[in-house]
Amino acid sequence: MRVLVVYYSQTGQLTDIVNSALTPLLNDPNIQLDFEELKPSTPYPFPWTSQQFFDAFPESFQEIPCEMEPTAIPDDANYDLIIVAYQTWYLSISIPVSSFLQSEKARHIFKDTPIVTIVGCRNMWLSGQEKMKRRLHSLSAKLVGNIVFYDKAYNLVSVYTILRWMLYGKKGNSGVSQKDIDEAPKFGEIIRKSLSSGNLESMHPELLQSGAIKVVDNLTSLEKTANKLFSFWAKFVRNKGGPGDPNRNTRLKLFAFYLLNGIVLLSPLTTLIFYITSIFRLGKIKADINYLENVVYEENRFIYN
After folding, report:
1. Does this model's pTM top 0.85?
2. DSSP 47
3. What whole-number distance in Å separates Cα of residue 115 and Cα of residue 299?
4. Which of 82, 101, 180, 183 has the fewest CB neighbours in a 10 Å radius?
């Protein structure tokens, strides 16, 4: 059986996650794993400068592709399973992975192929995965499993530590814990057994039982609010030009000021409002969480507009 692993890792953490999670497949002589690391023509830096970090925002959120290096994937390749590993950037799929999903190569190899997604993120992955579902649906691919690795620190703490890592290269305790990475092979074993048995339909329920996804309930509300605000800011900045255009620098600085201060104020306030009002919306919250945990794509139920 042939399995393609498509991924982009800026810091190297996602590479570690993928290598750990897929150990059972690597050790199975009946499975051939083809790894394809996606490479933008102009590499994204690590660490970022603050200018580069915020300049990636509009194109990330609006899913505007960048120019990519050619892949080594044959045009006539036929895979039994494709694993897409990605980071979330600004509530969206990272630009390199989003760009690949919009390519002709993806259109050819993803059609009618089962897909497993692996997400590595700070903690806000919900809308990014919803965008992933839409992308896979447009490629006529079938999502059969999802695994999420995230930073489990308190939201405001993780904001500080992730910025320190992204801008200064000081990882410390930020990001996905080493414990979670070390335990990742349990998910790979579920993938391996489902693939070997030909019963891919049972994969995601087993992944869920093994803790592959944990939806933090108050973040469902926070992401809804953030998506609406990001939609305004992305258009506001893009109206002054594309990536690297100095004409949009002032608007990017305004966005950066808003974002950093807004997180400090908006996150606790949104969380407080969520828990105060949740008693009146328990049914809706439960339905949203059940849907977000699932791999089913519902065209008329895109939660994050």
Report:
1. yes
2. S
3. 18
4. 183
Q: Please check whether residue 110 is in contact with residue 141, taking contact to mean a CB–CB distance below 8 angstroms.
A: yes
Confidence of residue 16 (pLDDT cuts 50, 70, 90): very high
SS3 60: helix
Distance CA 300, CA 103 (A): 25
Residue 82 and residue 38: Cα distance in Å, rounded? Answer: 14
Please give the domain boundaries of the chain with CATH numbers for all domains. 2-214 (3.40.50.360), 219-285 (no CATH)
Which of 135, 128, 292 is closest to 204 using CA atoms?
292
Q: How far apart are CA 17 and CA 9, in angstroms?
A: 10
Assess contact for 133 and 292: CB atoms under 8 A: no
Amino acid at 267: S
Q: Kindly write down the DSSP assignment for every residue of 154-211, as one continuous string.
A: -HHHHHHHHHHHHHH---TT-SS-HHHHHTTHHHHHHHHHHHHHT-GGGHHHHHHHTT
The DSSP symbol for 85 reads E
Query: Which is it for strands 81-89 and 2-7: parallel, antiparallel or unpaired?
Result: parallel
Token reading at 294: 């699932």
Residues 100 and 68: beta-carbon distance below 8 Å: yes
Q: Which helix (H) or strand (E) holds 254?
A: helix 249-277
Amino acid at site 260 = L
Q: How far apart are CA 83 and CA 66, in angstroms?
A: 21
Three-class SS state of 4? strand
Find all residues with CB under 8 Å of 141, minimum gap 6, and list them. Answer: 82, 110, 111, 112, 113, 114, 115
Q: Which residue has the tokens 């049914």?
A: 283
The candidate with the shortest Cα–Cα distance to 93, out of 39, 140, 130, is 130
